Amino acid sequence: MATLSTAAGRSFAVPARWRSRLGYLALLAVLGYLVVLPMIRLQSLAFEDGARGYRAQYTRFDIGETIQTTIALALGSLVIAMVLGTLLAFAASRLPDRLGFLRIIPILPIVMPAVANIVGWAFLLSPGPGYLNVLLRKLPWWSGSDSGPIDVYTVPWIIILTGFGLTSFVYLFVSAGMQNISAEHLEAAQISGSSTVGVFFRVVLPLLRPSLIYGGGIALLLGLGQFTGPLLLGQNYGVKVLTTEMYRRVSESPSDFAAAAAAGSPLVIFGLVLVLIQKGLLGNQSRFVTHGGKSFAPAGGRSLWATLTIVVYALLALVIPLIGLVIVSLTPYWSGSLSGDLLTLDNFRTLAADNAIVESVLTSVSTSLAAVVICVPLGYLMATLLVRGRQFKVLALLADLVTALPLGIPAVIFGVGFLLTYTEPPLILYGTKTVIILVYIVLMLPYATRMQMTAMLSLGNTYSEASATSGASPLVTNLRVMLPLMRPTILSAVALMFILLTHEFAASLLVRASTTQVMGTLLFDLWQNGSYPLVAAMALLMTAVTTAGVAVAMLVGGRNVLNKL
């Protein structure tokens, strides 16, 4: 016990239980300041002057269309992601053993930045110079036309590309649930005469219901908060969603933070409700600790359709948009015609010679790594409180809500909140790397906490109790027992957070300054200026940086790091 001295010379001991409680309380106060305060300040501003922000935003003539587009984007992309993610997870479970490496392919689109993927498809499907459109116009059905037949700047195509981007996240949840399905169930259904389709609908889908509900909820939240696709592709035809409305309100002169806060309110409310519903449905998460052996691993198959499904998805989600980026990056200008005489590396030389671009890469990597280094121990402490802190029920409930909020609230809202909070006293951090690191920590806190909490739940209490019985202190137990056992999960969390942060675009666009840029914000500036070959080269550079980070994680943590996401 710790001993404190009073003014009268007397001393008293602080019980270890109270030391832990005070430590967790201080940590929650800091996290609450980072996570909750920006939201409170935004909503307070929206209600000032008789809710002027709400009147300014929701009396606009086009607000109904904006809300309708937001809902259509969320629901449409959700359907696409759920269908494709579930199909890919089932296909991965039916792959023959010699092709087991293909199971990682549906995860790889996460490595490619969303902004790079969107830009790649724009170069291919732009109605005029898009390369795929040029090829399609050579077919008899569309010959003689000088534009189309596909227009990537319309709402349906924004929904399709967003759904493709969310598919990998659904695949992660569903494939994890698929691994817990006993092979005996599948074999029994097949012996009873069920076809592959029958097994999928009668056995697999019912058993996957928890994973589908959880993954669907996450995909719906991500769909509602989509920013990259609507911002980059929607400008041509004035396509607006609530997140782009927030950005427009803040970036216009003068900035209208009250209207921006009001625009994001429906997303905040829906995110909070969904998080609370999720907590109520899951209840005590220790109920989901399972113990199984090899018999619980799904058996592979020899289905040709499974291999083809994953290969086709790889072509659409990875290969084709990368081809579009490569072609444009090797040409002096973007046009529908392509000739070998035009190919050049000048765009990459320009990137290497531009100090601003080099600095943006260094800023992206350094701020991402700093946020990850801070987030991992924070997530570990929060996970420990949630899993082991039964004696701190109130603190555990607060920790659960604080760590879940950033997952339910779009990043652009945190960007606006941080911009408002840290451009005024007591902390004026606008334009510094510090504010970027802080917003990154907030955005990654749910991933750091949930992934480590899942690992702790799967390990159970056996190892920690055995260590305590042997006389080890909690610190020694965590350092010498729990951390080594959780190393694969921690490295996977590091890889995932680094991927997401080097891709981060929405929040960074709001808290950056002209002297403090990350790769995504600089790419956006190039896109706005019409420097399309440099945009393509920059997108490839972003993909290369992320791939290098994942490669390092795989060298340290093994080839299965991505599989453990």
UniProtKB/TrEMBL annotation:
SUPFAM superfamilies on file: MetI-like
Keyword Translocase: no
Keywords: Cell inner membrane, Cell membrane, Membrane, Transmembrane, Transmembrane helix, Transport
Compartment(s) where it occurs, according to its Swiss-Prot or TrEMBL record: Cell inner membrane; Cell membrane
Keyword Cell membrane attached: yes
Membrane topology: Multi-pass membrane protein
Transmembrane domains' residue ranges: 21-40, 71-92, 104-124, 155-174, 212-237, 257-277, 304-330, 368-387, 394-421, 427-448, 490-511, 531-556
Pfam hit, one: BPD_transp_1
Chain ranges of the ABC transmembrane type-1 domain: 67-278, 361-553
The family this protein is said to belong to: Belongs to the binding-protein-dependent transport system permease family.
PANTHER family: INNER MEMBRANE ABC TRANSPORTER PERMEASE PROTEIN YDCV (PTHR43357)
Name of the protein described by the UniProt record: Iron ABC transporter permease
Organism: Nocardia fusca
